[in-house]
Amino acid sequence: SLERALLWKVDLHILPLLFLAYIITFIDRANIGNVKIEGMLTNLDMVDNDYNTALNVYAVPFILLELPSSLALRRYRPGNYIAFIMFGWGVATIGAGVTRSYSGLLVCRFLVGCFEAGLIPACSFLMNQYYKKFEFQRRYSFFFTGSHIGGAFSGFLTYALVKMNNIGGYAGWRWVFLIEGLFTFLFAIASLFLIIPLPEHSTFLKPEEKTLLLKRLAEDDASNIDEVKTPLTINDIFKTMTHWKVVLPLLACFACNIAASALTAFQPTVLNNLGYTSSQAQIHTIPVYMVAMFFCLLAGYLSDVTHIRFPYVLLGGIITLLGWALELGAVKHIDISTGLGWLHQRYAGMFLILIGFSVQLPILIGWVGNILKGRKQRIVGFATLIGGSQLGNLVSANAFFTRQEKCGYKTGMAAGVGVAVMGIVAVCLFFGGLWWENR
């Protein structure tokens, strides 16, 4: 049919570019966790909680600039803006590879956080503009698996690139930053020639195809094609950010993000302490991401086909809680002198945490995106959810203490259990509020 052919054309033009951008951002975000066990700490004279500080200086600008960066989408073309911010964090990642001091690393990670802040809200908003409500979720879940590919590929890339140790006088961990940053830089330049505009400005569609696209979008949600030139006031922003339809899912997204950020930053270290060599630890991160990716795609597809969201989001929260509980329960079985004990159970806990996160978060963001009305609400809503959830980065960076590495990060695992429970409660209240309103 004409609509099916149109969707295929939109999919092929939009999804690959945004998917690749998400893979790249996740690799450049996760690589510090991989290189931590490859000599970076020693080379930069990092001690005590210096690594945690490096995580914090990335997270703070990432959180604070989500909304301002998203608002820039009303002023600049989304495709151009995405290329610009990718260029910026690519250069900063290269800088992390050449810096000779810990303070230089902090500056580079700060800049990566500044530039990366706008990517996911921009991509989420842009995708949301092209699809009807029950076409969007499976595509957003596919986009979201970029984090899984990036996480898995980051471990593999680190495993391969550290073998370049001493080439050109650079340590292996430096080559990880250098090569990955260079690839981001080149992709940013290439993406300038593959610009993705808003639907009404699309040039890759024929006039009759554009007319059909705009017609079907208007029939699905007339509020979506709106007020590009009307001002977005401080009052508009505040009302959206504080609405219960944003605040309750934000609490659940925050709980999800603690799971993601903790695994990204500390999974290689935990695996290293389970008795694997640094190379084995990098490789063992891959199956965790791949299995979680499968469940992410499956849940996103089923959610669209069945036209329901809540059961999948709730199930994801429960699975994550079980993973955290397994990790916390393992703490008392760990030999604190070696860090060994309950290897298989702790590895299984990682699978459960990431599977639950992967099922829950993309459906939750898509669900809220469908509920909000108009572009102004959606720009602010996506930025609030994604930016506010990044507070999870700060919690994980400050709950996983270096001194607790050998005993299983007891404080971090306990924090994971607590916020997972909070996330489940928030999702139930959100669903209850929508059910009551629909009545």
Layout of secondary structure:
Elements: H1 2-35, H2 40-43, H3 50-64, H4 66-71, H5 78-98, H6 102-116, H7 119-128, H8 133-144, H9 146-161, H10 172-191, H11 207-220, H12 234-241, H13 244-273, H14 278-306, H15 310-330, H16 343-371, H17 374-389, H18 391-399, H19 410-438
Membrane topology: Multi-pass membrane protein
GO molecular function, one term: transmembrane transporter activity
InterPro entries: MFS (IPR011701), MFS_dom (IPR020846), MFS_trans_sf (IPR036259)
Give a brief outline of the structure:
Its main location: membrane. It is found in: Membrane. The chain is mainly α.
Major sheet characteristics: none
Give the SSE string.
HHHHHHHHHHHHHHHHHHH
Alpha carbon gap, first and last residue: 36 Å
CATH class descriptor of the largest domain: Mainly Alpha
Number of strands: 0
GO molecular function, one term: transmembrane transporter activity
Organism: Hyaloscypha hepaticicola
Domain Major facilitator superfamily (MFS) profile: 14-439
Transmembrane segments: 12-33, 53-73, 80-98, 104-128, 140-161, 173-196, 246-266, 286-303, 310-326, 346-367, 379-401, 413-436
